[in-house]
Amino acid sequence: MRRPIHRRTTRASAAAAAATGSTSTIFAGAMRYELKIVEYSRTKAVPNGCSMKYPAFTAAGHTWHVGYFPNGVIGAEEAEADYVAFFLYLNDNDAAEEAVKAQAIFSLLDIEGNPVSSYTFTTVLVNFSEKKYWVTRTSSRGNLWRIHCISRTIASASG
């Protein structure tokens, strides 16, 4: 698995930035985590179904990471590599004490860092204690972006 090309989170406290080398801010359980993929064309060499796992981050008291599949994922109806996929994973091993619910917004950002509305997708609120795996697509075959999101990496993350 390749290392990510660049990772940056935004709006952080100085303490978080000093501890992790990144910046982030959490507002009422919400956090912005920004990935900048430099030299995107080079990531297309990653085989279909293989991901680039980005470093973990903390939001709402839980540890998460983002998986980036530059050539899509492998599945019965998804053997083609004409789209990118992003997964959000809950990493916590101690999440069994309470329900872990999450909602994510995935956006392609323009050159100024603003979300492009036609490439922005908000997931439903997902309860990780009920769903081991959740996926959705935002566009039809042939378009650049399909957003896949919210997945749980441990079977014991529960309610």
Descriptive tags:
159 residues; five-stranded mixed beta sheet; disordered N terminus; mainly beta; single chain; 2 helices; disordered C terminus; 7% helix; two-stranded antiparallel sheet; 30% strand
What would you say this structure looks like, in words?
This protein is mainly beta and 159 residues long. It is built from two helices and 13 strands; from the N terminus they run βαβββαβββββββββ. Strands 5, 6, 7, 8 and 13 form a five-stranded mixed beta sheet that branches. It has a two-stranded antiparallel sheet with strand order 1-4. The model is unreliable at 1-28 and 132-159 (pLDDT under 50).
Summary of the model, kept short:
By secondary structure, the protein is mainly beta. The protein has helices spanning 14-20, 40-43; strands spanning 7-9, 26-27, 30-31, 33-35, 52-53, 57-59, 62-69, 85-90, 101-102, 105-109, 115-122, 126-127, 151-152. The strands form 5 sheets. Strands 5, 6, 7, 8 and 13 form a 5-stranded mixed sheet that branches. It has a two-stranded antiparallel ribbon with strand order 1-4. A two-stranded antiparallel ribbon has the order 2-3.
